[in-house]
Specification:
The chain has about 650 residues and is an alpha/beta fold. Among the domains are: about 170 residues, Rossmann fold; about 120 residues, 2-Layer Sandwich (GMP Synthetase, Chain A, domain 3). It has an eight-stranded mixed β-sheet, with helices on both faces. The longest helix is centred in the N-terminal third of the chain and has 17 residues. The structure holds 5'-O-[(S)-butoxy(hydroxy)phosphoryl]adenosine. 5'-O-[(S)-butoxy(hydroxy)phosphoryl]adenosine binds next to helix 12, strand 20, strand 24 and strand 25.
Length: about 650
């Protein structure tokens, strides 16, 4: 991370206390109340989470709230529950029975609403559909869909019968889908004909067919008819969603599942080639997701809550689907692109549906800024009362724009820090209590112990840069990397292993500093993970995609700061030989397309730079640090004596 960025955030001192009006009705309405919760959690963190778990429904109580066998946590051991039951059945006996659970809008403008009663019915039918196809508790179901209500129904149906879902982002390629299906050994795939994006059909079924050519574990593909386009159906393997659902009973008793029953696997990029299957379980995840949604978004029964994330990411799991439903909220769900048909689509949705809470990513905010103030200005956004951001540090300029132009200067902003691995929000303001400052996610939530430490584990002084660690197991933490517990230990627990002083600390991969008031400022990733438009990409994964192209000998991918995306990807490539009659510029474009095909368009490098050789250490390791300095225009710093051939660097410049 650049020095410039660190000093720019250091000078930020604007302070935004919550308004009296907001605090008056908030779940946590003052700093005093927030401190009381923190105090309660400090006194006994496990008891604190037990209190939260008790707000939810359990079939049988737990015997032990936490069993910690470094580095593995089990929460609410011996308890049984069901997440779908907590999201749906629990509300049917209350005034929420006929309340809108999901208000959905397609890109073309079709609208559909599901009440809690209706959603429950659909989920029961979908659960019976899965059972009728031989899916049983413990099986993995892959879901490759767009932002349609049925995707939510599919997830909840899995949770209801104890099938572990593996949602694969609809923007990923067939190669990426295949890898994730095979690694998780999924038995059934749920997909759809296509999904709309900027007026065009993204053909999910065709991509799924390509993936399934090499997926041995898949027995059936359930296909939702959504766009109505003709898609090939493979006899016996492929089944239409609407046909099976028509035959399925709407009655289904939720299964009593162990608190540690695997709820889902979600793949995320790491610093080595293969994506990691992050495994989350039931009881702890449910508890922390329910609590954080309630206090961070300050949910009330009359809210219309709109989180713009795709269900293919962890934000979609925790804060589009599970968190809001656990709280009996009304979810606004939108299928398509923010700039379709015009760049005011979100503002139009907010106005027409009376959205009160809006949660999006800094990269999106920077795009809105670029598109111009006249788009939001055409709309009445006065229904909004709270704004949120997630995914990367928000630059103060974007924060101020969000605050003034979208929030009308009236809405608190919750900058929420968390990860796929943490499952739920960890560091965030509580909007009725916390005084916010643009650029900081402020303080750890009650029940979460976080610090910024040096490599040797000593605590950093105020404003000293260090590494962000979590110092006590938390309920919604990942349980392992699916099928690779060794990688779990190595990636997260080997930097600060269990010692006489502490139980083992979780390393987040983020660099951070803490200011005098204890606010945490995230500086960025310290590993070979790059945040592009709020999405996490492993440079090693992109490099291995590049090297799989026949013309490529070697590749190194680094990030260059980008005004909209946060980071842009620059790939340095050495080639075996230029293919006959192919210009370099043509090959460069071919390589960009190749990466999009191997992983997905989000991983497509912005620049391809051909090099005769890459800077390497004598032992043959590519020195990405030097490449990073080249693309950011920084002077070469640090040690270059390990460089095998200094002339390589000169030529690259
Ligand atoms: C990484 C996790 C959690 C859902 C979205 C991304 C960065 C996330 C913030 C924030 C600064 C943030 C971190 C983190 N990040 N939220 N509010 N401020 N940085 O999930 O793909 O698992 O990525 O995103 O670097 O480690 P993810």
């Amino acid at each position: 991370m650049t020095q410039e960025r660190i000093s720019s955030v250091l000078s930020e001192e604007r302070r935004f206390p919550p308004s009296k009006a907001f605090s008056a009705s908030a779940h946590v309405g003052s700093e005093r109340e927030r401190k009381a919760l923190v105090g309660q959690a400090d006194a006994d963190v496990v008891a604190f989470w037990e209190e939260r778990a008790k707000e939810l429904a359990w079939f049988s109580p737990w015997k032990k709230p936490l069993v910690w066998k470094y580095p593995h946590a089990k929460w609410f051991v011996g308890g049984t529950t069901n997440l779908a039951m907590n999201c749906l059945d629990r509300h049917l006996g209350s005034a929420r029975r006929n309340k809108a659970a999901i208000i959905w809008e397609s890109e073309a403008g079709e609208e559909r609403t599901y009440t809690y009663y209706q959603l429950h019915r659909e989920v029961c039918k979908a659960a019976n559909m899965l059972l009728s196809l031989g899916v049983s508790t413990g099986d993995v179901v892959a879901i490759y869909m767009g932002m349609v209500p049925e995707a939510t129904i599919a997830m909840l149906a899995c949770a209801r019968i104890g099938a572990t879902h593996n949602v694969v982002f609809g923007g990923f390629s067939s190669e990426a889908l295949r890898e994730r299906i095979n690694d998780s050994k999924a038995k059934v795939l749920i997909t759809q004909d296509g999904v709309m994006r900027r007026g065009e059909v993204v053909e999910l079924k065709l991509a799924a067919d390509a993936a399934l050519q090499k997926c041995k574990t898949i027995k059936h593909a359930i296909v939702l008819r959504h766009t109505g386009d003709n898609v090939p159906m493979k006899s016996r393997r492929d089944i239409w969603w609407h046909e099976r659902m028509a035959d399925a009973s709407a009655e289904h008793e939720p299964l009593a599942l162990d608190a540690e029953h695997p709820l889902f696997i979600l793949y995320t990029s790491g610093s080595t080639g293969k994506p990691k299957g992050i495994l989350h379980t039931t009881g702890g995840y449910m508890t922390q997701v329910a609590y954080t949604t309630k206090v961070v978004f300050d949910l009330r029964d009359d809210d219309v809550y709109f989180c713009t994330a795709d269900i293919g990411w962890i934000t979609g799991h925790s804060y589009v689907v599970y968190g809001p439903l656990l709280n009996g909220a009304t979810i606004m769900m939108y299928e398509g692109a923010p700039n379709w048909p015009n760049p005011d689509r979100f503002w139009d949705i907010i106005e027409r549906h009376g959205v009160t809470i809006f949660y999006t990513a800094p990269t999106a905010i920077r795009s809105f800024m670029k598109w111009g103030d006249h788009w939001p200005e055409q709309h009445d956004l006065s229904s909004l009362r709270l704004l949120g951001t997630v995914g990367e540090p928000i630059n103060p300029e974007a924060w101020m724009w969000y605050h003034n132009t979208i929030g009308g200067g009236r809405c608190p902003i919750v900058d929420t820090w968390w990860q796929t691995e943490t499952g739920a929000i960890m560091v965030s303001p509580l909007p009725g209590a916390t005084t916010t400052t643009p650029g900081t996610a402020t303080k750890p939530l009650p029940g979460i112990k976080v610090d910024v430490v040096h490599k040797d584990g000593t605590s950093c002084k105020a404003n000293e840069g260090g590494l962000l660690v979590v110092q006590h197991p938390w309920p919604s933490m990942l349980r392992t990397v699916f099928g690779d517990d060794e990688r779990y230990r190595k990636t997260y627990w080997s930097d600060y292993p269990k010692s006489r002083q502490h139980p083992g600390w979780y390393f987040t991969g983020d660099g951070a500093r803490k200011d005098k008031s204890g606010n945490i400022w995230i500086i960025g990733r310290v590993d070979d993970v790059v945040n592009v438009s709020g999405h996490r990409l492993g440079t090693a994964e992109i490099e291995s995609a590049l090297v799989s192209h026949p013309a490529v000998a070697e590749a190194a991918v680094v990030a260059r700061p980008d005004a909209i995306k946060g980071n842009a990807l620059v790939a340095f490539v050495t080639i075996k030989a230029l293919p006959k009659n192919t210009k370099r510029s043509v090959l460069a474009e071919q390589l960009r397309v190749h990466v999009a095909k191997e992983i997905g368009p989000i991983a497509r490098p912005d620049d391809i730079r051909f090099a005769e050789a890459l800077p390497k250490t004598r032992s043959g390791k590519i020195m990405r640090r030097l490449l990073r300095e080249i693309v950011t225009g920084a002077a070469t710093t640090g040690d270059t004596t390990t460089l095998e051939d200094a002339a390589v660097l000169e030529r690259l410049r």
